Amino acid sequence: MPGTDHPEERTVVDVLVGGSDSPLLSWVERVEDGDIVVTVGQDRSQRRVRVADGDPLELVWRAASELRSLPARLVATEAASGGEVCWRVRPTGPAARGQRRSAVRAPLSLGVSAEAGRLRGTTVDISEAGFRGVLDGPAGPRVGDVLDVVVDLGPGRLVATVAVTRRHPRADGRHEVSARFVELPERAQDQVRARVFAGLRDLRRRGLL
């Protein structure tokens, strides 16, 4: 069953190589003939990682109510449409409950407002764990403040609560802060993660990564 026995097309997955604890970020392009075709995995620095044919892998993704994990192996590296390079992955066992994934950050400028619009600005970078942003307003938030924010993910909006963890000095009177999401639901985490990955793909396509 798609989503339970294997990840669905156009979803974000973590790829663990050879039992590593450091996941790579990937995207499911298509599922065909029992194989899963995913984009080449990227590490936290957004670098593509080379994996040899036959190496064992583990795919981790978000299903309807839980994380799922699927053991597999790499059977081929192949070109896809648009110049993308993909891995052809073949399952080697049944899917089971998966473990929590790591957060991947992208340098994206997204509109953000806080305190019912009293503070407005843009993100400098964002992940499912939180964001760094520059805000305009009469008085900036302090470290430890808890704020209700709206982030324009384009498409879609993220309504969330954040805790300010750090202020960054600026000379222009604007307020630059780092903030972490507070109890962000899994579905919202997936929404942010998908936007992060789409943004990374766009930056790479434009030669900016």
From TrEMBL:
Protein's name in the database: Type IV pilus assembly PilZ
Pfam families hit by this protein: PilZ
GO molecular function: cyclic-di-GMP binding
Superkingdom of this protein's organism: Bacteria
Species this chain originates from: Modestobacter italicus (strain DSM 44449 / CECT 9708 / BC 501)
InterPro entries xref list: PilZ_domain
Domain PilZ: 99-197
